[in-house]
Amino acid sequence: MDMILITGGAGYIGSHTILNLIEKTDYKIIIFDNLENGHIETVNTLLEINSKRQRRADARIIFEKGDLRNIEDIENVFNKHSIDGVIHFAAFALVEESVKNPSKYYRNNIYGTLNLLDTMIKHNVKRIVFSSTCATYGNPQYTPINEKHPQNPINPYGYSKLAIERIMDDYDKAYGLKSIRLRYFNVAGADEKGRIGEWHEPETHLIPNILKANDVKTFTIFGNDYDTRDGTCIRDYVNVLDLAEAHRLAYEYLLEENKTDVFNIGTGEGYSVKEVFDACERVLKKKIPVEVKGRRAGDPAVLYADIGKVKNILNWKPERSLEDSIKSSYLYFCKNKK
Ligand code: UFG
């Protein structure tokens, strides 16, 4: 059974993917995270969940604290463990912040990934599943967006991920590195038992911000003058557990096919901010205080995926609805309010 290194395993999507791997596979897992955005509590919860399921005597999940920007940190992990493949989540991922502080994004996302890839090649590890993003497409020329859509990012975050995609292509040609790039659309929801979930500080994402609004805190809609059916932005919200499953399938595809490829991961359906807000009010069965303010910089009006390719090749499809994502987010939010 492979040993997989999961960078950014203490973060939102990484931790849900580890949960999927604990529940569905026997892979050994090394969690690598600098805990800048990830949380040690999340790691501890994963270790606890695993210990309840553990059938073997040897440790199946090991946490290694480290930073991809320090090549020694990653080198130590590869020297210590016999790693077979990597799922690479570790990155900064906020569009607006990337515009204000591009250096942070290029240094961490690109330079950190280069350290990782060079260490992989040095240790003859040539399988990687990579978190890419629909932000590499930029303003859509058509929707739904398929994988052939031109990639013209409009912010440093999108550029950093596109650069990594290109680097991976070059490393394939030169060193035989095989990568599956999953271009996620918007990710939502949480573990359905509320054990782990979306935990960002500060929180900027739509659904958690709606759920956090209360009598003293009003939810803000950023712009209602877009050219869409109700004037608010349209996005494609894929459930984090479905996304986690896509990572497992992508890794298994690499094992079987040993081929580089790229897949959009979304639902194929777009919901406006207003529609998401209404769905949250229905799930919570209460009125949520709301106000409308101006547009947020860098927000395209409409983004939703064509997911035909991933359905055909990885045999993946989304199983959970927007309401399911809102319900699990709310459960996590209620259990972890403090
Ligand atoms: N929004 C609001 N109010 C809020 C938060 C968000 O109106 O309090 C709106 C945004 O303006 C946007 C939509 O809700 O129109 C979704 O915003 P999010 O911040 O939840 O997500 P983004 O689309 O900005 O970005 C996310 C990830 C990126 C990824 C992108 C792909 O953070 O890493 O999805 O679409 F690239």
UniProtKB/TrEMBL annotation:
<comment type="subunit">
    <text>Homodimer.</text>
</comment>
<dbReference type="InterPro" id="IPR005886">
    <property type="entry name" value="UDP_G4E"/>
</dbReference>
<protein>
    <recommendedName>
        <fullName>UDP-glucose 4-epimerase</fullName>
        <ecNumber>5.1.3.2</ecNumber>
    </recommendedName>
</protein>
<feature type="domain" description="NAD(P)-binding">
    <location>
        <begin position="5"/>
        <end position="327"/>
    </location>
</feature>
<comment type="pathway">
    <text>Carbohydrate metabolism; galactose metabolism.</text>
</comment>
<keyword id="KW-0413">Isomerase</keyword>
<keyword id="KW-0520">NAD</keyword>
<keyword id="KW-0119">Carbohydrate metabolism</keyword>
<dbReference type="InterPro" id="IPR016040">
    <property type="entry name" value="NAD(P)-bd_dom"/>
</dbReference>
<comment type="similarity">
    <text>Belongs to the NAD(P)-dependent epimerase/dehydratase family.</text>
</comment>
<dbReference type="GO" id="GO:0003978">
    <property type="term" value="F:UDP-glucose 4-epimerase activity"/>
</dbReference>
<dbReference type="Pfam" id="PF16363">
    <property type="entry name" value="GDP_Man_Dehyd"/>
</dbReference>
<dbReference type="InterPro" id="IPR036291">
    <property type="entry name" value="NAD(P)-bd_dom_sf"/>
</dbReference>
